[in-house]
Amino acid sequence: MSYKVLKSIHMELSTQSIDQARRELKLFREELRAKCLRLVEALAKEGAEIAKMQVISMDAVDTGELEHSIDAVFFPEERCGVVYADAPYAVYVEYGTGIVGAANPHPGIGNGSSGEVVSMGGRDGQRTTAHLGYGKSFAADPETGKATSTNSENGWVYMDRNGEFHFTMGYPSRPFMYNTLRWLEEHAPDKASEILTGGMGG
Length: 202
Description:
By secondary structure, this protein is of the alpha+beta class. It contains 5 helices and 9 strands, in the order H-H-E-E-H-H-E-E-E-E-E-E-E-H.
């Protein structure tokens, strides 16, 4: 693996040269910190766009609520970026539901899984639990818009927002967030190289 020199500081054995090198080093540290923050923010924004594209490519678009609920927030003080989906049923799309979901599990679920996933999602980190493989369904109450759920190992009937009833055995996992994470892991080094080396003198 080759590494690019981000900054070269030349110094002679004199008080004036050493002081100048220390000033240059301090400026470099400040510049590097700012660029690292910019990298985290850029990755979070790209992650939100990738997650939206994943939802569309996996045909997980119904009303458009899930796609439009995906966004990113950046916390500079914590040096942290978060990609989130605020739709109440996002966790069920991600991990799948019912018998179909159990037969087509989430790629991040190992053989030793307890069958329950707790998701901390959205801006406020709301806690949502999905019971994998047990027909955890969701349907929006037409009056309140709130998601309700039922459990069945043999499928279930639910009413959609138009008042029509549907029978389902569940849905396979459509891991839009998992795939987004994998994408970010793969492309983060290139993005880091682009941002960290841009504008830094040698």
